[in-house]
């Protein structure tokens, strides 16, 4: 098991979940995650619902907030080769806890060079020791062809894709599936996917 948000979101078997984007006009954007029986597992609210830019909320099936994700701003970030997003969970007393940090390349910075990989660290400083990140994003999210890879083992922990041979709806980029490997925290995975959705200007962005 690899609990990051909570062990209750770790399954002993592989899980395939389906993402359905919500239209901005009707529902304010964001997306809904369902399981194979079409039962809602997670919901993601973005700018269209929250009314705040660079901020997302991952909710459980009952609408309870699991993660608040927001982008770090300011002059320091403007001069950095990365833009940093931070995901926070909350305990019963309302205190926040840093769950993960996601760094995206800052395209406005000329020093970007070859450091164009999106990386994720868990907790305040990551856990790998040798590296200051724990996961990397391989592939290109807008094409629905990317994966979250464990930087220590090189193993894929979650894969975003569109199944071939399915109906027309599933062939649309508004509908795609995510395969989460056994023991991996699904809430963490969808916190990262929600961040990618916003970065690439999709359903969570105004």
Features:
Tubby-like_C, globular, LOR_sf, LOR, Porin, 206 residues, LURP1-related protein domain containing protein, mainly beta
In short:
InterPro entries: LOR, LOR_sf, Tubby-like_C. With 206 residues, the protein is mainly β. The protein has five helices and twelve strands.
Topology summary:
Elements: E1 15-21, H1 24-27, E2 31-34, E3 40-45, H2 47-50, E4 55-60, E5 65-71, H3 75-78, E6 82-90, E7 96-105, E8 119-122, E9 135-140, E10 145-150, E11 156-161, H4 168-171, E12 175-180, H5 186-199
Antiparallel strand pairs: 1-2, 1-12, 2-3, 3-4, 4-5, 5-6, 6-7, 7-8, 8-9, 9-10, 10-11, 11-12
Strand order across the biggest sheet? 1-2-3-4-5-6-7-8-9-10-11-12
Q: Structural class, from helix and strand content? A: mainly beta
Distance between the termini: 36 Å
CATH architecture: Beta Barrel
Tell me the number of helical segments per DSSP (H or I, 4 or more residues long): 5
Strand content: 35-45%
Unreliable spans are 108-114, 166-170
- What sort of overall outline do the alpha carbons produce when their principal axes are compared? globular
Total individual domains: 1
Major beta sheet summary: 12 strands, antiparallel, barrel
CATH class: Mainly Beta
Q: Can you count the beta strands? A: 12
According to CATH, what is the topology?
Answer: Porin
Report the average pLDDT across residues. 84
Radius of gyration: 16 Å
The H/E string reads EHEEHEEHEEEEEEHEH
Helix content: 10-25%
Textual characterization of the structure:
Belongs to the LOR family. This is LURP1-related protein domain containing protein. InterPro entries: LOR, LOR_sf, Tubby-like_C. The protein has 206 residues and is mainly beta. It has a single domain, classed as Porin, CATH 2.40.160. 15% of the residues lie in helices and 37% in strands. The protein has a 12-stranded antiparallel β-barrel with strand order 1-2-3-4-5-6-7-8-9-10-11-12. A hairpin with a 5-residue loop joins strand 6 (82-90) and strand 7. The longest helix is centred in the C-terminal third of the chain and has 14 residues, at 186-199. The N and C termini lie far apart (36 Å). Residues 108-114 and 166-170 have low confidence and may be disordered.
